[in-house]
Amino acid sequence: MEQPILEYFLSLKYPISIYPEEEGGYTALIPNLPGCMSQGETLGEVIINGSSVCVMQWTGETLI
């Protein structure tokens, strides 16, 4: 993806839904980006992880 287009999509604000997990921690779903979700021990961690997942979604990177 061209850099100006990528920067545009990364600058958008995406709504997230955050759910507490029974075992502790949280899961965040990003409905506008199908398949994008993150997990974290704290609310701050799940939001930071979610931001990273959005970047990875737009750049085509993977965790593995």
Automatic annotation (TrEMBL):
Residue ranges occupied by any HicB-like antitoxin of toxin-antitoxin system domain in the UniProt entry: 14-53
Any Pfam family the entry gives: HicB_lk_antitox
Domain of life (superkingdom): Bacteria
Annotated InterPro entries: HicB-like (IPR031807), TTHA1013/TTHA0281-like (IPR035069)
Name assigned to this protein: HicB-like antitoxin of toxin-antitoxin system domain-containing protein
Organism: Microcystis aeruginosa NIES-4285
Lineage of source species: Bacteria, Bacillati, Cyanobacteriota, Cyanophyceae, Oscillatoriophycideae
